[in-house]
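Input.
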Amino acid sequence: MATRLPKSLSALLQLKTAKFSTAASLCTKAVDVPLDRNVSGYKKPAPSPADHPADSCTTGKAIATATSENKTYLWGRYNEMKKLVHELIPPGICNILNPANIYSNNEVKLGNIEIYGFDYDYTLAQYSSSVHTMIFDTAREILVDQYKYPEGIKEYAYQPNFAIRGLHYDVRKGYLMKIDAFHYVQLGTVYRGLSPVPDEEVVQMYEGTQHIPLHQMSDFYGKGPTMKQFMDIFSLPEMALLSCVNDYFINHSIEYDPIHLFKDVSDAISTVHIKGMMYDWIENDLENCILHGDEIYAVLNRLVNNGKKLFLITNSPFNFVDKGMKYMVGDDWRDLFDLVIVQADKPSFFTDKCKPFRRLDDTGTLQWDKVSTLEKGKMYKQGNLFDFLRLTGWRGSKVLYFGDHLYSDLADLMLRHGWRTGAIVPELKTEIGIINTEQFTHGLTWLQALTGLLERLQVYQDEDSMQVLQEWINERHELMSLTKNLFNPQFGSIFRTHHNPTYFSRRLCRFSDIYMSSVSCLLNYDTTYTFYPRRTPLQHEAPLWMDQLCTGCMKTPFLEEMVHIR
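Output.
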């Protein structure tokens, strides 16, 4: 069953409530207009001289005293808050998220799911990083040998930790960047080649703003007139190669058109896939290329034993899928599936109403008869979803389909056909591991608290107070950089741009009902389990956040009740 939060967590929070409430009441004094002016011991600090212009009786000494008191007051609130944060998070409380959990964006009752569908690559079959290295190396050789790019490019090696999934690439400028859910570029995460682009240059290149207009961003499948979003896990070596080639041309002062470079790199990467090179590598070294294969058999067998129907829709060819599934599941793997469709040509499979199904024999050879039924245990090629729905009757929310590509696998199914969808996000395992560290937990909690202090105490505008606030702003920037770098020094987390969700995260929430690091996470849940999404607080609601609780946005008497909410 799913791993739950430690039973001691609620009790631990309750033990902290008294101390927390006291500290919070102290922090409410930090606001210029507190929620309760009758709090015992309340004494409003000296007002800013800007609020009360000096009259004939006011002396320079009095003003200096007032501003000095403000400065002392601000640092007092700062130190109280820092002490509170330290005491609130005891050792050992950080490691509470389980990377094997399934997370829900929408309520899903597995008891209502009758049919389970799967993509193959990076859904049933998880690959090692060695596959990405081979894609990078081969495409690099194609650029030099076939496209006559400089020999020096061969000196670049694949950097597996350079880029992250979900980044955007400005084809005309050659910029690789992270964009948030509101179409704003996250400054500090823009790279041209392997070097960061200064923030000032980024703003200047986008006409004095960090915002990327909707018409430039991307269409329904992540491709716009000037921007491409890299959503596929296989795109990691492509981003690395683009960056390396840009870097070589820049460092050697070679004039080039970024549009041509982008097309050539994309074509070289496509050649690796189209000519089947990647398939050959994996087929010849299944043991080192495929990860966690034994868990896939356990998932599929469990579903079948509970009366579920299974199907597979993949863009990969029959022989490749057959060898991989035999390695992971066994020679009789097809007995587990009601339908298997290969070379489906997603996402066109979900929108094209004309392409017919072709039957394959047991060796993968194409048959010529017209397909008027889809039979259990048979293999099919191409086809389209509309014929699939007509011939199977598998419609609506009784179907749950899993895939790793938010656009090609999930978007059409959720938005146009009402299927339930599950996103496979392998990066989730690593990111949760980082979130569970004390360094991240303490850093993020203090960042939230410090942001709250800045927001509530910015009313103090005298010179000394402004210097204090500027120090806090500088510290906040350092904290944001620290938490970002824990995930990836160049681009940070795939889910967040500091405080906002990333564009990738926005799409993940829109196109998937549930998401997880691996299909094997299903083993932790009963087939009748119901996933309930947590109520995500809106900005005007009252979340259990340090900055809200400790700077007067929430009345402390309700803390004891809030403790029981997780």
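The chain has a mean pLDDT of 85.
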